[in-house]
Structures are given as structure tokens and as C-alpha cells.
Amino acid sequence: DFPPGDEAYHNYDEMVAELDKTVADHPDIASKVSAGKSFEGRDIPVLKISDNVATDEDEPEVLFDCNQHAREHLTTEMCLHIAQRFTDNYDDPAVKESVDNREIWIVPSVNPDGSTYDVASGEYQGWRKNRQDQGTDVNRNWGYLWGCCGGSSDDPADETYRGTEAWSSPEAAAMRDFIDSRVVGGTQQIKAAVDFHTYSELVLWPFGHTSDDVTEGMTQEEYDRFAKVGTEMAQTNGYTPQQSSDLYVTDGDSLDWMWGQHKILAFTFEMYPSSGGGLDGFYPPGDVIERETARNDAAVDILLREAGA
Ligand code: 0X9
Ligand code: CA
Ligand code: CA
Ligand code: ZN
């Protein structure tokens, strides 16, 4: 489990318990479903938050997903923080306004096998991938131009191994099935999304597979909207806004698929810290969780607003 000083982090069972408690405490506005199962058979829970939560209403839907990468535990806390803020503070008029007019989907751990393995021994393993064979990088396994562009590896030992084919990881496939299931009457209901990672303090937008701003699937107008919203969010949290390929080129990441396949206004946030420490950067002490998750409150609110634009 998490080492001394980091007990505030939630392991998989604690994360599930937290979601169950949220639903038990707020049954009118919170419910839990499953996106599917991980390679080792763990459920990948999805929390829904909205008024009339049992009804699929005609309200813009927003997705927050976390922990595609095993060692990025701060992101799981980010998703749990969002869940708590929109349920525990429902009597705050601004929160109520958001909850009543959106359907918010939260996936605290896309990669529960990897995150469990990372902490199981009591010493951090520095693990990134899932636990399928030598491990697939879940964020290189999504099916938009999978493996196209030198932004992933075909070596199963590599940290960015893309898998044997698109969607070969059960975790990416489960997320695909869930997001595809939000197409209702031919229209994708999820309008905006953030995929949380650590670290570097960045707000990133598509595409990742090319350094071109404008390309097949991205007009200048669309690019400009990403840059505008991304920059506005970054002004609230102090992160650096940029196209994801400005960091480095990736192929098969979730961002490119969410936009390329579904035209979801999708961002990747790289959370605290900004730099330094190599592997240590993935393991900030538990006492930064509150500050570094609340830091994104205003950006999350902007994304919820944009989902209705
Ligand atoms: O490499 C990744 O999957 C993400 N960074 S991380 O350090 N958390 O592994 C970044 C994905 C965003 N896409 C691009 N940078 N193209
Ligand atoms: Ca509703
Ligand atoms: Ca709906
Ligand atoms: Zn990551």
C-alpha cells in the first residue's frame, strides 16, 4: 500500500469505497456504473453526477478520466476531488447550477491493475503501463491513427508500448465502449473532457500525432477554439497551455481519439509538479493533494461551461 506520509492517497479499494459512499450519501445526484473490466478483472467504475441522476436527460455531458498511467496517483485524487466537490457542495448555488444542467462522468482509475501493482509492496515501483504481459501503455492503445507516426513503441518492453493492435488493452477498450455508448440518436452526448496525468503542469490539446495545428480532422477554427479554451483554463491554474505534440508526438493517445473520432473538446492536463525529480515527480507527498486538486476547480468550471457552448 502507499508508504508512510502518503496514506492520504486512495488505493483501488479505497477509491471504490469512496465512490460507494458518495452514492450512498447523495443518491439523488450520484450513481455508479462500470465501464468494463481491467486485464486482471477489476471493475473500472464510472461515477455519474447530475440532477435526476437515474434519468438520461438532454444535458451536455462532460467526462473526467484519471490514472491511465499507473504511477500518476495524484490524478485519481483529482477525480475524487471533482466527485466530492459536485456532491458535498450541492447546496452552493453555483455548484447546483452545474450539477443540474450537466451530466458529469468521472473515471478515477482507468488503469486499476497498474496502480495497484505500483503500491502493492509498500515501495513505489515507478510503473506506468497496464499489467497485460510486459505491460501496454494504455495511452498509446487508442484507435485513432494507432501507431501511425513514431509516437509509440512496438517493443513490448518499452514504456510507450502500443500493444499488439488498437484496443488490445481491456482498459482502453472499456473506455472506448463507454464513450461510444454515449452516442444517443447519432449524437455524441459528451461534449468536453479532461484526461488527467502527471506531471509538468501543462494544459494540452489535440492533435498529438502531428506537429501541424491544422490537419485532416482539425480546421483552423477548431484549433483556435482549443487554444482559446486551453489558454483560459491555464490562466486559472498557472499551467502552460500548448498543443500536445509541442510536448512530444504521440500516437494512439486518448486525446486524439476523443477529438478525432467523436469531436469531444478534449484536453490532457499534466498536474503538479512542474518539473524536477525524474520518477520522484510522480510521488508528491500526501499533503499536497488538497492544494493541487483544488487548483483545477476553476478550470473544471470553464470546461463545464464550454460543454454547453
Ligand atoms: O505521454 C503521455 O501519455 C502523456 N504524458 S505522461 O508524462 N503523463 O505520460 C502525454 C499525452 C499527451 N499527448 C501528447 N503529448 N502528444
Ligand atoms: Ca440531470
Ligand atoms: Ca444525457
Ligand atoms: Zn500520464
UniProtKB/TrEMBL annotation:
Alphabetized UniProt keyword annotations: Carboxypeptidase, Hydrolase, Metal-binding, Metalloprotease, Protease, Signal, Zinc
Molecular function in Gene Ontology: metallocarboxypeptidase activity; zinc ion binding
Cofactors demanded by this protein: Zn(2+)
Limits of the Peptidase M14 domain: 8-307
Active site annotation, chain numbering: 270
Metal-binding among keywords: yes
Reactions mediated catalytically: Releases a C-terminal residue, which may be hydrophobic or positively charged
A GO biological-process term: proteolysis
Enzyme Commission identifier(s): 3.4.17.18
Recorded GO CC terms: extracellular space
Function: Carboxypeptidase that possesses the specificities of both mammalian Cpase A and B. Thus shows broad substrate specificity, being able to cleave Cbz-Gly-Leu, Cbz-Gly-Val, Cbz-Gly-Phe, Cbz-Gly-Lys and Bz-Gly-Arg in vitro.
Family: Belongs to the peptidase M14 family.
Protein name stated in the entry: Zinc carboxypeptidase
Source taxonomy: Bacteria, Bacillati, Actinomycetota, Actinomycetes, Pseudonocardiales
